[in-house]
Amino acid sequence: MLTDIQIAQSTKLKPITSVAESIGIKESDLELYGRYKAKISQEYIKKSKDNKDGKLILVTSINPTPAGEGKTTITVGLGQAMNLIGKKTVIALREPSLGPTMGIKGGATGGGYSQVLPMEDINLHFTGDLHAITAANNLLAAVIDNHIYQGNELDINVNRVIHKRCIDMNDRALRNIVLGLGGTKDGIPRQDSFILTVATEVMAILCLSESLTDLKDRLGRMIVAFTNSNKPITARDLNVQGAMALILKDAIKPNLVQTTENTPALMHGGPFANIAHGCNSVIATKLGLKTADYVITEAGFGADLGAEKFFNIKCRKANLKPSAAVIVATVRALKHHGNGDIEKGLDNLGKHIENIQSFGVPAIVAINHFANDSEDDTRSIVNYCSNLGVDAEICTLHADGGKGGIKLAEKIVELAETNSKFKLLYDDNISIKEKIETICSKIYGAKGVVYTPKAQEEINTIEELGYSNLPVCMAKTQYSLSDNPKLLTRPKNFEITVSDVRVSAGAGFIVVQTGNILTMPGLPKKPAAAYLDIKEDGTIFGLF
């Protein structure tokens, strides 16, 4: 079979104006970035608000292996399959981060004959959204340090500046740095660190904002530091929210691209799934619902992270009501969880089915089929799901494109017509600890939660500041239901240790740190960047 990039480069793309027309968007409502990419204007978004909403379908997965289980491929392929059976469908995805693309993870545009194109552009600079987020974030950082240098009128405690600079590149050397060295004219020395652009609160804010005004208001609410008397300092106190919103004026507009079968795809925003909420933008999702009968979207990593946050944060904030959910599983991952025994590994799938059903959302399992999967193994998955009263469909979307998921698409249409009884897992008004413990017990299966002294102190501070009504965003490993990546399948009798808690007041959630989650990844010994190149004629190679 051809490589992903060979398939992408051999695919005949339609002009993006033609793709837009298929969902009722005129060329006058587009801002073109060449022939095959466009942003959709704010004017069109406003015009479409009275359109009838389509049905929202979430694609999630079991706990993945380091190689991933093809969730994006299933999302893209399912969107193509839905259109093949005559259902007007749009795909809504996150944008890839350049850091992981150059590192080890790879891109985020699907694979095989179920890709979003032009994949080279999307996986590199795309329309510049991540660069704009980087610039807005770093403007705020520069203003903070300049304020301190220029006399520190707000009495900022230099040891309690919590806003971090960012870069869209994996670089472990930036995890711990010292600023302001060189002399009195070069700033006030202090310790600090960089984080990845997709881990910033600015990214989370962009993805949860519903308008430019909402974006500016949320940016202003960001808590960036504390004074020497422990009072919070916001971006609004520094009067920089307007300039940040100006930098993001184009980044807030959703991007329109297409799949290998010319299905419309909205790619917008890309928050980290194990740090932030791991979903594409609310603006893009709601736009998709106004332009199609079905929107197929995904949430990062397994259902314990991505789906939980999609439901409890994104749907809560944006008043979204999903009609059905797809849980992606592979023979490879289930054997991984069962230490080679698929029967043992199936318990992991069972827990994720249980988790989705706890939100009142009907679920179906998509078995992402690989050529070396045995009939006995796939039959085991189908039978296991059947015993739980859940359908499981074998998909060959990577090898066959949309036609490899026709049965899955037909089952999704049936499932979406049932009465989804979507409900949130917890109420806004319970305490921060009650929210954390509800997720840990009901979603992870933990027997209890342990709080470090630092975490307890931060919870007390957040409650004193009046933010205890916000939902919690768990920062946890994606490889296990627990906070220990080595505890596979469906672990029991374990505790979750909360090491840190911080409020993202602009995004509107409380980040709860468990385990050792890096906000600035490093490059592997042989990074993907070492295999990338471009020819004189502009042909790119080595990109997956």
Task: Please provide a brief summary of the model.
By secondary structure, the chain is an alpha/beta fold. 36% of the residues lie in helices and 20% in strands.
Task: Explain this structure.
The protein has three domains: 4-127 and 251-417, 3-Layer(aba) Sandwich (Rossmann fold), CATH 3.40.50; 130-242, Domain 2, N(10)-formyltetrahydrofolate synthetase; 432-514, Formyltetrahydrofolate synthetase, domain 3 (Roll), CATH 3.10.410. 36% of the residues lie in helices and 20% in strands. The chain has 19 helices and 25 strands. The strands form six sheets. Strands 1, 2, 3, 4, 5, 6, 14, 15, 16, 17, 18 and 19 form a twelve-stranded mixed sheet that branches. A four-stranded mixed sheet has the order 20-22-23-21. A three-stranded antiparallel sheet has the order 7-12-13, with no helix packed on it. Helix 4 packs across helix 17, helix 7 packs antiparallel against helix 10 and helix 14 (342-358) runs parallel beside helix 15 (375-387). The chain starts with a helix and ends with a strand.
Q: CATH superfamily assignment of the largest domain?
A: P-loop containing nucleotide triphosphate hydrolases
User: Beta-strand percentage?
Assistant: 15-25%
> What is the helix content?
25-40%
CATH architecture of the largest domain: 3-Layer(aba) Sandwich
Tally of separate helices: 19
Poorly predicted sequence stretches spanning 5 or more consecutive residues: none
From the spread of the alpha carbons, the general shape counts as globular
Q: Determine the CATH topology of the largest domain.
A: Rossmann fold
Q: What is Rg?
A: 23 Å
Q: What value does the average pLDDT take?
A: 95
Work out the number of β strands: 25
Structural class: alpha/beta
In CATH's first tier, which class of the largest domain applies? Alpha Beta
Major beta sheet summary? 12 strands, mixed
The tally of structural domains comes to: 3
